[in-house]
């Protein structure tokens, strides 16, 4: 019967090898051999049993039915045809017949575990997985020589996402029945899911040795290399997979993805084009990967075109909407993403992928209340989706409803103990509470389970940084960058360790890593600007504590050109000629966006306009005096400084975590000294007429208030005042009006997001006007 064993291996139902055409051809060849063997060995059960089980496994139930009826007549005294009939009825979805056949078989063969298997099958059908697994544990003791309790236990535990139970059953299978493929398949899947990747490689090696003719170890090996982020291995394994199984989806999907991670975009495109030639008809997954490839290389217009092509070819596939919305979201085209996702929700209300994409658009818009409502609505509809549970917890976190977030994520962690999204969100809650010791503990636990998870490495690095363990933070983040060189949060985390050290040359060098890898994004400009500004502050603090030390910041020590002097072409040079008077820090961020980092008393401050008038009229009397300089902590943990007389509140960009009472006192004294210096500098600028002063209020100011501020500014000297307000039907963004004398009004489109283009146009127009008038005055003289 050696031939029977060989064909049985060929028809192994758990292999999942090859594509549909390949599997069908192999099954037909195997069935032909079984038919010959039945003719020559009609008394042997194997040619019947293996053929019937193979047909059932491949879904060819109508062909299995007559062959099973013949087997039941020929082998009436054997229990296996009755057991197979139970399986056939279950595959047809006829649980009533399955139960009836199982009960009848239990009466005919009382020593067989038919009724036990029936009860377990019913528990599985009702998704009562914990009870089913408990029954299987009992069955192991009742039927110690049978493999079925272990096989069923492994697959049911996998379906239940109970990785620990799945691993236990799989390991027992490999030990007691080493020829059973389920022990390796379930073991590989569960080890991969829980991040135990070295152990998974060991099991894969065993499988390759034990099943040399099977295709599934090759497929699993390619998925494992992708999970390990071992992109070179993934490229090689996927190429071998495409050679052996040219119509297998995974070879192209994994190969293209791995090549993209290595930024080998042309080769990835070639792999997908090869798939389009070999796989007919073209499948939705292939067209989706083709669209995602354009996404991954940042070609947003091409990605949009490809997703439109996907929707045209597969109008009934929700992925056309979820994938397109994700592409638009990643391209920061959030209004379009919202429209696509909303239409997807309308057309496919039962699609979890659409619900997730819809919520993620709100997340990217930083509209946390809308994100919360969308995750909340999706949670009861898709209770088995861990990313929805994680998203709900994170939305609550950003709404600062931290107790609710903690409770939601505790529940999610119990429901999905091995999901990395949930584990990451749970660790993030401790960071949101600024509980850095607990955050450190949780991130270490996440990395213990998912050692290659870049987000967890960022979280651990940040926790170490905030705990003051800077060498360890540098080590964690630097090592992670070698594996994930283009992971933005990792690069930014690496930069911020140098900023935390106040090693400004190194911080600026690391900032260039951001620019080299991601371009001159807003995040790059903000981070580099913060480093430059804080370096200036450090030099200022050093000067204030020891005035004889040389090294004052240029903007504080040197007079700037007058407002009418010709400007360089640089936007940074242009915006250095302007000085904010409040009432908020919007213009400070506009300056940072172009690399302008002046020192200014009111650049990062807020104060109501009426109080600003009082300050201007009293020459900012008392600002910086210790009795009027109070330190307090905002909800995000940042220290702010306040002068309570004028509700003058100022960012420090320094966080309370780790400060002793003595350090707080010293910091408060340091801030008072800064304020005294910046008050002096502002008064000098007002008297010298060296800046164009900017007034930006949250609400529209009455004309008489603007005039009062202008009069107060003009009382110091020949100063220009630029009042900036939102555009209206009569004034487009970028428009500038001169009301009279040195009073101007400019218009921008929005407050949030910041209208950088509008601000720059207004400032350019204002400078041009001042420069033109200065030339006229000079010419007349």
Description:
With 781 residues, this protein is of the alpha/beta class. Helices cover 66% and strands 6% of the residues. The protein has 38 helices and 9 strands. The strands form 2 sheets. The protein has a 5-stranded mixed β-sheet, sandwiched between helices. It has a 4-stranded antiparallel β-sheet with strand order 2-5-4-3, with helices on one face. Helix 37 (703-714) links the parallel strand 6 and strand 7. The longest helix is centred in the last third of the chain and has 28 residues, at 661-688. The radius of gyration is 35 Å and the shape is elongated. The N and C termini lie far apart (115 Å).
- Beta-strand percent range: 5-15%
Helical segment tally?
38
Shape: elongated
Cα distance spanning the termini: 115 Å
Walk across the major sheet and give the strand order: 1-6-7-9-8
What would you call the quaternary organization?
A: single chain
Strand count: 9
Name the average pLDDT.
86
Helix content: 55-70%
Which class do the helix and strand fractions yield?
Answer: alpha/beta
Low-confidence stretches are: 1-19, 555-562
Major sheet attributes: 5 strands, mixed
What is Rg?
35 Å
Write a compact overview of the structure shown:
With 781 residues, the chain is α/β, with parallel strands linked by helices.
Architecture blueprint of SSEs:
Elements: H1 2-10, H2 20-40, H3 46-57, H4 61-74, H5 80-91, H6 95-108, H7 114-125, H8 129-142, H9 148-159, H10 163-176, H11 181-193, H12 197-210, H13 216-227, H14 231-244, H15 249-261, H16 265-278, H17 284-296, H18 300-313, H19 319-330, H20 334-347, H21 352-364, H22 368-381, H23 386-398, H24 402-415, H25 420-432, H26 436-449, H27 454-466, H28 470-483, H29 488-501, H30 504-518, H31 522-545, H32 554-557, H33 571-575, E1 578-583, H34 586-593, E2 605-606, H35 609-617, E3 630-633, E4 638-643, E5 648-655, H36 661-688, E6 692-696, H37 703-714, E7 720-726, E8 736-740, E9 743-748, H38 756-780
Parallel strand pairs: 1-6, 6-7, 7-9
Antiparallel strand pairs: 2-5, 3-4, 4-5, 8-9
Helix pairs in contact: 1-2, 2-3, 3-4, 3-5, 4-5, 5-6, 6-7, 7-8, 8-9, 9-10, 9-11, 10-11, 11-12, 11-13, 12-13, 13-14, 13-15, 14-15, 15-16, 15-17, 16-17, 17-18, 17-19, 18-19, 19-20, 19-21, 20-21, 21-22, 21-23, 22-23, 23-24, 23-25, 24-25, 25-26, 25-27, 26-27, 27-28, 27-29, 28-29, 29-30, ...
